[in-house]
TrEMBL record:
It comes from the Eukaryota. GO terms for molecular function: hexose transmembrane transporter activity. PANTHER family: MAJOR FACILITATOR SUPERFAMILY (MFS) PROFILE DOMAIN-CONTAINING PROTEIN, SOLUTE CARRIER FAMILY 2. The lineage of its organism: Eukaryota, Metazoa, Ecdysozoa, Nematoda, Chromadorea. GO terms for cellular component: membrane. Coiled coil: none annotated. Keywords: Membrane, Transmembrane, Transmembrane helix. It is found in: Membrane. It comes from Plectus sambesii. Pfam families: Sugar_tr. PROSITE patterns: MFS, SUGAR_TRANSPORT_2. This is Major facilitator superfamily (MFS) profile domain-containing protein. The chain crosses the membrane at residues 21-42, 74-95, 107-128, 134-156, 168-192, 198-219, 282-305, 317-340. Residues 26-353 form the Major facilitator superfamily (MFS) profile domain.
Length: 353
């Protein structure tokens, strides 16, 4: 029974009208926020040659010469890696943005403005002869990525009931895979990956950002942020919206007050490393994250097309492999939920290293 607990929690949640609203809100916001993350991870993969050819022509128009294959490889590596650099920078703005704007507004409005600007700037690089826009746009989408990957778990934690919180957090990985699959499909040459359409391909996530900005006023700020700022009347309205009038409002309000009082004072990076308990936790997180990055998964999603071409894989199948891999990853997430429950996180993590 334990392996199926998370799926049962979600199923029972849909049967409860109050929990159903929270589940649908989390699915809606997670899809619109996280799928662009997976999208921009993969979007440069399949149309790599098409975009490189266009950038090379732009370089010739500006400087009067074409880039060599080696120079183009270096330029392309810088463009791809700008997203990682942007994500690193974005992480430093998580606490200031959530404290000043609130979790909901930071996630659904301000971060999506970054996504829109970044996506449109990359799209514009296909229409005007400025390959430098690719660096700027890619960096901005990286900032969005760093913020989105932190804001969604915070948002889920602050609005969802404890009994379904863990299950709802699993949608994050699923929608990264969905976004990756969407990018891989749209980037096929006969859809949006052609010479005349790759700008639209890179600008597409701006549409998802616009939808979320327009939907943002329909959702109240999270109860936790409102209570921490002493706005109890609006916090009560927020609890009614997310948890429904059928819930015990006094008990829920008390739980949120207790939750807010337990939030520790934010430490600086220097203070965190000075604390022995926090230091080892940070080091462990860094090692696990580095393991995930350097296992080759990030390089694969960005360079799988050229990798398969270099080993003379079946040419006609190469453009479809990123989409297949993303869909397979999303499917494998479901049994992974069961394994987490049966094996435990520590044992499962160590066995996969």
């Amino acid at each position: 029974m334990a392996p199926a607990r998370k799926m049962i929690d979600i199923t029972n949640g849909f049967l409860d009208p109050d929990k159903r609203r929270v589940i649908l809100i989390v699915i809606f916001t997670s899809f619109l926020t996280i799928s662009p993350v997976g999208y921009h991870l993969v979007v440069l993969n399949v149309p790599e040659k098409v975009i490189q050819s266009s950038l090379n022509q732009t370089f010739f128009n500006e400087y009067g010469r074409y880039l060599s294959a080696a120079d183009m490889s270096v330029l392309w590596a810088f463009i791809v890696s700008c997203q990682g650099l942007g994500a690193l920078i974005g992480c430093f703005f998580i606490v200031p943005m959530t404290s000043y704007f609130g979790t909901k507004w930071a996630m659904m409005t301000w971060n999506n403005l970054i996504l829109i600007f970044g996506s449109l700037i990359m799209g514009l690089s296909a229409k005007i002869d400025m390959f430098e826009l690719m660096f700027i746009g890619r960096f901005l989408t990286g900032v969005y990525t760093g913020l989105a990957c932190a804001l969604v778990p915070i948002f889920v934690y602050e609005i969802s009931p404890k009994e379904i919180r863990g299950a709802l957090s699993c949608f994050m990985h699923i929608f990264v895979c969905v976004g990756s699959a969407l990018a891989a499909i749209l980037s096929l040459n006969f859809i949006l990956g052609g010479e005349d359409t790759w700008g639209l391909l890179l600008a597409f996530p701006a549409l998802l950002g616009l939808i979320q900005i327009l939907a943002s006023p329909m959702l109240p700020e999270t109860p936790s942020h409102l209570l921490m700022n002493g706005v109890e009347d609006k916090a009560l309205q927020s609890i009614k919206f997310y948890h429904g009038s059928g819930s015990n409002l006094i008990e829920t309000m008390s739980r949120y007050n207790e939750q807010c009082s337990e939030i520790p004072q934010q430490w600086s990076i220097t203070d965190s490393f000075k604390n022995p308990k926090a230091r080892w936790g940070i080091i462990l997180g860094m090692v696990v994250s580095a393991t995930q990055i350097f296992c080759g998964s990030m390089a694969t999603v960005s360079y799988s097309t050229s990798m398969f071409e270099s080993v003379s894989f079946i040419t006609v199948l190469i453009p479809y492999l990123p989409a297949f891999g993303s869909i397979l990853s999303a499917i494998l997430t479901l049994p992974a939920l069961y394994l987490v429950e049966t094996m435990g996180r520590r044992k499962l993590l160590l066995s996969t290293l």
